[in-house]
Write the structure tokens for this entry.
Amino acid sequence: MTAPSSQQPTTWDRARAVVPRGVSSGHRVGWRQVFVRSSGAYVWDEDGNRYTDYLNAWGPIVLGHCDARVNEAVFRAVSTCDLTGVGPQPGEYELAERICEAMPSAEKVAFCTSGTDATMHAVHVARAATGRLKVLKFHGSYHGWSDHVAVGSSRADLTADSPLNTPNSNGLHPALVDDVVVVEWNDAAGLRAAFERHGSDLAVAFAEGYVHSFGCVAAAPGFLELLRALCDQHGVVLVFDEVKTGFRAALGGYQSVCGVTPDLTAFGKAVANGYSLAGLAGRDTLMGHLGAYSKNEATIDGTYNGSPYAVAAANRTLDLMVEEDVFTRLYALGERLRAGIERAIADTGVRATVTGLGSEWCVYFRDTAPANFREAQESDAGMYQRYHASLLSQGILEPAFPTGDRRLNAATTEDDVDATLAAVHVALTAAAEG
Ligand code: PLP
């Protein structure tokens, strides 16, 4: 790798002078690099260094960066009919039809622009449908920034005995936490107790069927089934937040893998390979509560919702996923990577463990796979920092914090994976050296 040039601080300084902390999304801090080009499996910084990208914009890039076929579909759409603000947008209902076909919970679909929008609408629909207020969610699971779900997932104030339902940041309405019930992931007894105590006040229960908010943590056997049964018993709307797993764990989302069907599904990210599209899917009876400015219905309204460029990107992305059997490829590559990391951990004797699903994985610097948020935070931060720095210096881009999940895209090759495994070997040794 070439040494950083004196250009890089200048770029950050210039950005920081006019954008808070230099970025419009908090997760983009943690690197000194400035990326100026991307293609397929790779990104390049402004000094010309190439990195194999396992961040993939925190999830959306699933086929590969700057996919020419997706870009071509977008160009065609916006050259034909761009935003009109009237009636259905071209391609919108075709995309909804495809999602209804692929995703078990989807009888109707409405589009919006971000995962934050989608989870916010899920809360509104559930409240309109049930006439109740409270939200149940799991500790550490991130569902975006609307006040009623931005609770109980901050790493910043987490101690062994800190309360579960604290707001994720300043500026959120502090009184809202009284309406949010937070349960530790995989705590079946805690989940039963929460439903016993609050069941008749709960409008909605949120879960990432497979948790990526703190790496890669599966549900314990029977846990999702228990959640489904408790929601049914207490008349609570079950939402799967598939913003990360939708169109990445499978075309039909993680629900098509685990066999538990939620009432509503929030999705986003990979559906459009980097274009800003998200949505809410669900049972017709619930989705029917989405109207506009009615006292009886929740509202969906957004200038860019279902916009032709994003919808065209999604339709083409979904075509290619099917035509190229993308999920078989993503799973095979992910499996090769995780098996290789496991071997590297055994060879180096470093105290670490790797978990994951399909194209996603996480390396925790602890003996065993974590079952919940608190256990995930016990990953050794110093070891992770050295591991991350070593990988970055070897041209591998991964999250800058220990419990970040990483993922590959379908343009990644077996050779890329094998080169990454050689780098992981070096990085594990560096992590242990302290
Ligand atoms: N839900 C989950 C599980 C997420 O991982 C994210 C973002 O990372 C969101 C919701 C929010 O999505 P967005 O960043 O598109 O608002």
Q: What stands out?
A: Residues 68-323 form a domain with the Aspartate Aminotransferase; domain 2 fold (CATH 3.40.640.10).
